[in-house]
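Task 17 of the worksheet. Students: predict the tertiary structure of the chain below and write it out as structure tokens. Keep your answer in the requested format; marks are given for formatting as well as content.
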Amino acid sequence: MDKHDRSYTNGEITVFWKPAKCIHATTCYRELIEVFNPRKRPRVNMQGAPTERIIEVVEKCPTQALSWQWNDPEKEKERQASAPARASEPEEKPVLIQIMRDGPIVVQGSFTLYDSDGKERKAYSFTSFCRCGHSNNMPFCDGNHRLKGFRSDK
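Model answer:
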């Protein structure tokens, strides 16, 4: 666990935030500002919405920087038991590509990235590519689009 990682609870669930994975797509606070508010400290107010709504928004995080678990061990055990069923679905799903408003291109699905010389860089199942040109980790997004005020027409 990174020293910058955070966890927040409302008694029913715990939400985990991994800033190193966050590309500031703003999905969380656009969807649920009552819970996820970057202008407030702490940034996450777990009392701001019902648990089901928090889970719904956390599961929309495009980078999986946000995740959650039930605090009740039995409920979490049930949730984990259902995970293999999801994982056993056919691997050959289409690659999904999403252009984030004022942000990166998010790619989900099994794919391999090759460099300009045709050498395989890495196999991925999820990553975000920079489209603002300001990343310090090209071609990947590092969230600098937010600092530089990048705006897109889409």
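Marker's comment: The CA atoms of residues 3 and 145 lie 24 Å apart. Residues 86-90 have pLDDT under 50 and may be disordered.
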